[in-house]
Amino acid sequence: MARILITGNKGFFGARFQRHYSLQHQILGIDRDEVDIVDRDAVLRTIEEYRPEIVIHGAAITATSFSDKHPELTRQINVDGAVHVAEGAMAVGARLLFFSTEQVFNGNVEAGPYREEHAANPDTMYGRTKLEAEDRLRGILSDLWILRFTWMFGLPEYQAMVNPNVVWDALRIAVSGKPARIPVQEFRGLTWVYHMIDRILGVLEIPPGTYHIGSENELGRYDIFRHIFRELGIASRIDDLLIPDHDKYRAKPRDVRLDTGKIGAAGITFPPGTEAISECIREFSMTGMGSP
Ligand SMILES: NC(=O)c1ccc[n+]([C@@H]2O[C@H](COP(=O)([O-])OP(=O)(O)OC[C@H]3O[C@@H](n4cnc5c(N)ncnc54)[C@H](OP(=O)(O)O)[C@@H]3O)[C@@H](O)[C@H]2O)c1
Asked: How far apart are CA 228 and CA 239, in angstroms?
């Protein structure tokens, strides 16, 4: 049983992580209501009192549009907040898992998938502040795993919020019955949040460093939505509800795919995004939605 402190435990990942491991590990979850990570003293006091062996830093401003409208607040939370958590981990000798993102590449003009050493060129405050935090944390402690996640998906659950993601968004289109335009030229890795939860503590068994992590995916967003409709058993609704949007990203495809070969070579592997989606839909017993 490990003693773990996780920040952002009311978020999409954190709530599910804490519930999943609550019987196996001793976990203290903190979110904005308990400790504002911008408050350095409060962060250090909390970590020094709890003395975790492992710190998982998930708290952040994650919405890109909000981050661009509130750049100063985003920097305080995503950079200064991360520094405070790292200083706390350093003070108690804890190992730190820091969650970064594929979005550090959202301004790159060349096509993905990107490897860890590829020069990142973020063009949102979210991406910029995550990249800046990575650099700052490397200067604070060496027992540090920087994990750049691909886009996670999952479904709403009791007392666990859900963020916008392909499976949930496709379901909402199906339920609303309103046709939606889906970009054809958008390419992102897609990871089931439970696949990430299952593997995340295993990362501590591989050498510290920066890793791209999650399921890889070759399909554009429109083709992914078609796949989701088929897996839900509502393929007959595809042509009514899913309109291929060829205009968005026409000039330059949006491509933030990550090459996950480095972490794969270290033994941490994920199924391809389409398989992960099929598994999620099966596990939530959501196949056959088209039949009464
Ligand atoms: N979900 C993905 O697909 C994805 C992909 C790549 C990377 N990541 C990274 O993985 C981590 C977890 O993602 P997620 O989707 O679970 O994010 P999330 O749902 O947005 O959760 C983040 C949590 O952090 C909290 N928080 C924000 N500001 C805080 C502050 N000042 N003090 C304390 N807590 C604060 C948020 O509270 P409020 O809701 O009150 O703001 C929220 O509960 C993030 O660092 C994210 O950048 C996620």
From this structure: 13
